[in-house]
Amino acid sequence: MRPSRQRIDGRHEGYVTYSQTQSRYFAYPILSTNHILRLLGKYTTLSYCAGDPKETEIITVNGIHFNAFANLGHALRQARHFWRDKFDGQELLLWADQICINQSNPSERSHQVGFMAKIYENATQVLVSLSSEGDRTGGLEWISRTIPPEVIYHAVDAFSRCSPGKPELLFRDFATGPILEYYQYVSPVDDIHVSWTTFVETVLESPWWSRAWIRQEFILSPNAYLMASFEYIHWLTLASVLGAVPPGFSRQLEMKNTRCSYIKCLVCAKQPDHERWYNRNVVRKLMAAKIEWSNGLRRTLMDWLNDVYTWKASDSRDMIYASLGLASESYGLRPDYVRNKSIEDVSIDVAIAINTHYGYLATLELLKYVDPVSTRPSWVPYWQSKQHYISRNRGRKKHHKYPLLKSDLLGRKDGILAAQGTFHGAAYWSPDADEYGKRTLQTSKLEQLGADGARPGDEVWMLYGCCYLTLLRPKGKYYRFINLVYGQSLAPLTDNALIEEVIALTEANHPIISYIEIC
Hints:
The chain folds into three domains: about 10-130, no CATH class; about 140-210 and about 235-295, no CATH class; about 360-519, no CATH class. The model is unreliable at about 1-15, about 15-25, about 170-175, about 255 and about 390-400 (pLDDT under 50). It contains 18 helices and 19 strands. The chain is elongated. A hairpin with a 6-residue loop joins strand 16 and strand 17 (about 470-475). The chain has helices spanning about 35-40, 70-85, 95-100, 105-115, 115-120, 140-145, 150-160, 175-185, 190-205, 215-220, 235-245, 250-255, 275-295, 300-305, 320-325, 345-360, 360-365, 495-505, and strands at about 15, 25-30, 30, 45, 55-60, 65-70, 95, 125-130, 225-230, 230-235, 365-370, 390, 415-425, 430-435, 440, 460-465, 470-475, 480-485, 515-519. The chain has about 525 residues and is an alpha+beta fold. Helix 7 (about 150-160) packs antiparallel against helix 8, helix 7 (about 150-160) crosses helix 11 and helix 11 (about 235-245) crosses helix 13 (about 275-295).
């Protein structure tokens, strides 16, 4: 059974109030009379990693036994401990997704997810649970114990005043030098070995950082506290500590300190673990995004989708949907769990929306190289896949002479992109080797064909609505997009004369213009 809720905009929405129970188990009344407008800035949200759905525990909501994720139960206990420590005697008004959203109802789920951004934006703060029941302690406590408050305050102040639009400055030593100095010269030698290792294993390696939805939950909230076991710190404190630790930190400490006997010590590790450094950079990137947001900077949906391949979600569609609430421009897309769409369907929707928003074949200019054996639509970026190579730094500026394309040329729901353009020859091996002794591909119009994945028989086209020559591979009555054609500068090959030619010929309905379909 599900507890009743009062919803935003006339629907029902649940807010759980904290009960002063001493038990491991919880009994919560759920508010059903307060409108959301009366609760703005008065409630706290909870962010956690759901974990294994088979691991559950019982909580009581409105007198009804509720089967909650075990990690949610752990997060509730952390929230209770945090609240008693900082706001003892005050009521805790808490929003938790598993309790407040009926996950089994696709219609309600679509509706609720559509305004989750507002829920987190209008909260007082978010409490982030980085741990699970039984995890080792000490990952956060040592920071406040060993680093003086004035040192952290200096770093936090530097971070809060960081220049907008320059996230690369967030972690330079000038902002956090005092913390680094304290690490190297003041912090107890014996303590740093175990403490730093525990910090990495329990905080930086928490599965929470890779969860898709946490970006929205963390970045949009006005304030955030991070909880590991029953320790907590302000998020800027963690950002400051990470900012103070440059690459090679372990080696610097090893030079200052004697090696310890702790076999798993990361300070004494001869080689830094690549995955651990990579995860630290993921955490830093998230911290930088929150500071950017606090400074008023906003990103489009495409900007957010650039990072999706590092995210994880039990429902692969959430890799896309989790970005919508963060985007300054989401191209009219909304979460839709009702129609049972696959991730491929959602990716096609995103590609059509991007092309429609920019009015030209923007998705083709994002693709760097498409796996020729893939059965997915080749013109559609699959942001969540490392195998579908996307140029994450390529510009998205429409050529000023292209008129907006008609809707039937921007992509179809069945995965077909209807296009028109001019044919510029089929690829074949050049008779002579290049200066390095290798044979290259060419066409009747191009002396050297530069495109990863090209093979004889591929065709070069100038498509109407694209600023670059494209390499297509015939497949029955269709074509598959392989790559953009590159010049000697290793940049996509473009020519204003070719663009103007294809525009003029298309608008004149010239017979040289061919209509093709890309699958």
